[in-house]
Amino acid sequence: MNDWLYKYPPLYPGILLKRYKRFFADIELETGEVITAHCPNTGSMSGISTPGSAVQVSYSNNLKRKLAYTWEMIQVFDNQPTWVGINTMMPNRIIKLALEKFLFPQLSNYQKIQFEVAYGQDKKSRVDFLLSSDTERPIYVEVKSTTWAQKQLALFPDTETTRGQKHLRELTALLPQSRAVMLYFINRGDCNQFAAGDSADPVYGKLLVSAIALGLEVLPCRFEISPQGIRYLGLAPVLDSVPQN
Q1: Are 122 and 130 in contact (CB under 8 A)?
Q2: For position 244, what pLDDT does the model report?
Q3: 8: closest CA among 243, 231, 181, 167?
Q4: Residue 33: helix, strand or coil by DSSP?
Q5: Would you tell me how many other CB atoms lie within 10 Å of the CB of residue 192?
Q6: In whole angstroms, how far apart are CA 155 and each of 53, 67, 138?
Q7: What's the whole-model pTM score?
Q8: pLDDT tens profile 206-241
Q9: How far is residue 34's CA from residue 205's CA, in Å, rounded to a whole number?
Q10: What φ, ψ does residue 55 adopt, rounded to 5°?
Q11: 213 phi and psi, to 5 degrees?
Q12: In the sheet where 193-196 sits, what is the strand order?
């Protein structure tokens, strides 16, 4: 539990000036240089794109890239000073490492890991991971990066997501012949509970409740994010509803 599951390459600290057009972020580095970094997050980024916040960026010397820097994380103070991962490409990479290490006892007894496997009635969707063995039902695992928080409660989604609704319907359709798992990658270490973001997407919340009743498994996985790396903290309990203040 104390080992880094993933170690970042050297990152560069800066201050977020603004995020715009979804894919761009202007950032002032510690040196005073102002750069435009790639923002690898197409979501609304509720509460995690405040100008003036401390951020960390990575650098690539790949000359084919239009932008050399990538925005990796931002520091928030919702509960305590906490780094939040904003790069939506990272969760699948981290979960792959975790699955290869058999880190989740809830997903045991598999010998084969496949990625981006076509599934669904029309075979036009792709599930993030398919775990299979010779003796057990196949396990379909969909991963969702979760960054929105209310106090110590992680919430997903943070905006209406018809794509997320579609994933829930397609995973539910796999039951009971297969196991279907929604793995919420809690991309911040300050949350110790999870619930559906009903206020952002009531339809998603209702679909999730229905899917769980039919056998969908929910794994809200907590991760500590820091400029040094990422480590797994364990599962968060799932709340049926968001507590009212």
Answers
A1: no
A2: 59
A3: 231
A4: coil
A5: 18
A6: 21, 31, 28
A7: 0.95
A8: 999 999 999 999 999 999 999 999 999 999 999 987
A9: 41
A10: -135, 170
A11: -65, -30
A12: 148-150, 153-156, 193-196
